[in-house]
Amino acid sequence: DRPWLVGAIAVMLSTGVLLFLSEAIKCFYNTSFWVKMITLPVALAFTFLVRDRQILNGVPPVTRGRMLGTASMVLWFVVAAAGRWIGYS
User: Fold this and answer.
1) Spatial contact of 89 and 31, defined as CB atoms under 8 Å apart
2) What predicted TM-score, i.e. pTM, was given to this entire model?
């Protein structure tokens, strides 16, 4: 269905595991790491489950698209920002 997305997620997870293993103890006690680990499955679930479903049926399509797009961008921004912040904390 989405081969590029699934492939990118596979690469992201495999490189993320390797990066985690290089500094496992530091990451385990890092708040930014846990923010990312909590937000990542939420963002993935949103991408695969919520985005394509007919939710918010009573909302006009343009508004619904903006709301779902904003939610998706916020989730992925938090994942990226927390990932970047791991190195600085």
Assistant:
1) yes
2) 0.85
CA distances from 50 to 36, 46, 69, 82 (A): 20, 5, 11, 23
Q: What is the DSSP string of the chain?
A: --HHHHHHHHHHHHHHHHHHHHTHHHHHT-HHHHHHHHHHHHHHHIIIIITTS--STTS-HHHHHHHHHHHHHHHHHHHHHHHHHHTT-
Contact 42, 75 (CB under 8 A): yes
Other CB atoms within a 10 A radius of the CB of residue 47 amount to: 16
Digitized pLDDT (tens) for each residue of the chain, 89 residues in all: 689 999 999 999 999 999 999 999 999 999 999 999 999 999 999 988 876 676 777 888 888 889 889 999 999 999 999 999 998 88
Those residues with Cβ within 8 angstroms of residue 33's Cβ, 6 or more apart along the chain or in another chain:
27, 82, 86
